[in-house]
Amino acid sequence: MSCIACHTSYPELTPFGRQFKLSGYTLSTGESNLPPLAIMLQPSFTYTEKPQAGGAAPGFQPNDNYATTQASFFYAGRILGPYAGDLLSPDAAAFANKIGVFLQTTYDGVAKTWSWDNAEVRYASTGSLGEHTATYGFYANNNPTMQDPWNSTPAWGYPFTSSGLAPGPAATTLLDGGFAQQVAGAGGYAMFDNTLYLDLAGYHTIGSHLQKSLGVDPDGEAQISGVAPYWRVALERPLGNATLELGTFGLATDTRPGRDGSAGEDRVLDLGFDSQYQLAFGKNDISAAASWIYERQTWVASNALGNTSNPFDSLRSLKLTLHYLRDKTYGLTVQYFSVGGDADAALYPDSASGSPNSNGAIFQFDYLPFNKGGGPAFWPRSNVKISLQYVAYAKFDGARTNYDGAGTNARDNNTLYLETWIVF
């Protein structure tokens, strides 16, 4: 199928794209005998307001850097692709075709390393509970929230891509990628009457040797003690040609800082609320998303080890995003973002005031020349998104924008990022 069946400006999902995901990546037109393989390339250019002393990263210049931000290989679809009927009995093939996978391995062109990326296996089916229909399933994955069908939770939320050669705020919540590719989790979900979505899972940190073999560096990471529960509740309702989703999600963890359990364990609770509105009219799309996460941090171990100045801290993250796609070809996205919390000199040593507070806006223009009619004749299911993104900071790790040039200037971190996102 064409990209616009499942996506607006990829990777944002349409209602059909969300149904494809809820169905475990297993829906198929049956028109292809090829395995479900795909490739992604992201060549890019990064310019920051102020050159970065010593280089933006090892092997790169202080400014004006070209890189392959990412290159990824995917196996995504039915676990046996179109071959289940050829390999198995009819009953076994019918069962296997309810199991789907999303497997991604990525080359990081900044760190110059390969690693596993988002990975998930699902079993999905349909049924009923009394008078209520349900799409339900079970999954295992390595990134909390990657299973979510909306683009308002962290794993698939905007910005979908960003430069690996630009400064970024020091403070992020654990749910906002803090455990990505470091954990393994399993859970179950159900969507009732295409309205009520429930999801419950548990996550545990993968062993350090296995992480290294998968290309992940475990040094310094927070290790989950036991199992960390993750929960998600959401409501989606149609509003004419539009859909509106309102939801909440969360993660509770006991962690060992730097994988060191000698001083006990920290306790971190993340509680999030989100909403997504999506309207399709003609060949145009409008979407709006909001996400707010509150993180309560109890530093039993970290404070004893001298990693924090305070025994308790909190962190708040807010993202408000508006996206418009005209004629399935020209996209404009604006996001306001803010992260704030308690000042902690040991926890945020690169901040002059110990403050984690950062806020600003992202402006992005996209051009998708093949999105509407398909790619060139030799590969009609390929696509390209050319993006120009500008990140403007009003505050960065506690520092404000100072127009008199005195002190640390948040504006020095403003970033212009040009990227070509190629998929086939």
List the helices and strands and how they pair.
Blueprint: H1 3-6, H2 15-22, E1 37-48, E2 65-78, H3 84-87, H4 90-96, E3 99-108, E4 113-129, E5 132-141, H5 174-178, E6 183-192, E7 196-205, H6 208-213, E8 223-224, E9 228-239, E10 242-256, E11 266-281, E12 284-298, H7 300-304, E13 312-326, E14 330-341, E15 358-367, E16 383-396, E17 399-400, E18 415-423
Antiparallel strand pairs: 1-2, 1-18, 2-3, 3-4, 4-5, 5-6, 6-7, 7-9, 8-10, 9-10, 10-11, 11-12, 12-13, 13-14, 14-15, 15-16, 16-17, 16-18
Q: What is the CATH topology assignment?
A: Porin
Q: Tell me how many strands there are.
A: 18
Give the SSE order as H and E letters: HHEEHHEEEHEEHEEEEEHEEEEEE
Helix content: under 10%
The CATH class is: Mainly Beta
**Rg, Cα atoms, Å:** 22 Å
Helix count equals: 7
**Termini distance?**
13 Å
In the predicted model, the low-confidence regions spanning at least 5 consecutive residues are none
Taken as a percent bin, the fraction of beta residues is: over 45%
Strand order of the largest sheet: 1-2-3-4-5-6-7-9-10-11-12-13-14-15-16-18
Shape descriptor reads globular
Structural class: mainly beta
Number of domains: 1
Q: Give the overall average pLDDT.
A: 96
Question: What report would you give on this structure?
Answer:
This protein is mainly beta. It has one domain: Beta Barrel (Porin). The protein has 7 helices and 18 strands. It has helices at residues 3-6, 15-22, 84-87, 90-96, 174-178, 208-213, 300-304, and strands at residues 37-48, 65-78, 99-108, 113-129, 132-141, 183-192, 196-205, 223-224, 228-239, 242-256, 266-281, 284-298, 312-326, 330-341, 358-367, 383-396, 399-400, 415-423. The chain has a 16-stranded antiparallel barrel with strand order 1-2-3-4-5-6-7-9-10-11-12-13-14-15-16-18. A hairpin with a 2-residue loop joins strand 11 (266-281) and strand 12. The relative contact order is 0.13.
